[in-house]
Design brief:
7 strands, alpha/beta, 157 residues
C-alpha cells in the first residue's frame, strides 16, 4: 500500500471516476476521495468506484466539495496537482514526498477533472501547487499513474 490519499475533484464523467478509481486501486494507494462529483459521475461513477475500491482494499470517501474534504481529512501536507499552464508552479519533488511518508505524515494529492482542473481559489487550499511528471497536460489519470508509479518505485513496493 502507498500511504497517500488521492482526491479527485469536480468530475462530471462516470467513466473518468471509474478510470481514476482503477488507477488508484491498481497502484495500491491508501485512500481515494471524490469531491464534487456531478450528475452521472455521482449516480453511476461513484458506485463503480466503490466496488473497485472495496475489492482492492482501498478506502473510498465522498464529499460535496473540496474544502469539506480537506477539512475532514486534515492532512499534514496537501499537494494541488495541475499542469504548468493552469497553475502547477513547480515539478513535484518525489523524493521530498517519500521523506514525508517516511516521517509518517498524512499526505494528500488533489487532482481536478474539468479544465481548468482546479480554480485559482482551489489551488490556494493546498500547501503547494505542483505538476506531476511533465509541465504539459497529460490528463488527471495519467498524472495519478505517474505519481503512484514513482512513489511505489521509491518506496520499493
Amino acid at each position: 500500500m502507498i500511504p497517500v490519499t488521492v482526491v479527485y475533484h469536480n468530475v462530471h464523467s462516470p467513466r473518468k471516476v471509474e478510470e481514476m478509481a482503477r488507477t488508484v486501486a491498481g497502484f495500491g494507494a491508501k485512500r481515494f476521495v471524490i469531491s464534487r462529483a456531478l450528475g452521472s459521475a455521482a449516480q453511476e461513477g461513484v458506485p463503480k468506484a466503490q466496488k473497485i475500491c472495496l475489492e482492492a482494499g482501498v478506502e473510498l470517501l465522498f464529499f460535496q466539495d473540496l474544502e469539506e474534504a480537506l477539512k475532514a481529512l486534515s492532512p499534514d501536507v496537501t499537494y494541488m496537482a495541475e499542469d504548468a499552464e493552469h497553475g502547477g508552479a513547480k515539478p513535484l519533488d518525489f523524493d521530498a514526498v517519500v521523506k514525508e511518508i517516511e516521517r509518517e505524515r498524512e499526505i494528500c494529492f488533489v487532482f481536478g477533472s474539468a479544465r481548468p482542473g482546479l480554480t485559482k481559489q482551489e489551488l490556494e487550499l493546498g500547501d503547494e501547487a505542483v505538476y506531476v511528471g511533465t509541465e504539459r497536460n497529460v490528463g488527471e489519470v495519467g498524472a495519478v499513474a505517474i505519481l503512484l508509479h514513482e512513489l511505489r518505485k521509491r518506496l520499493n513496493q
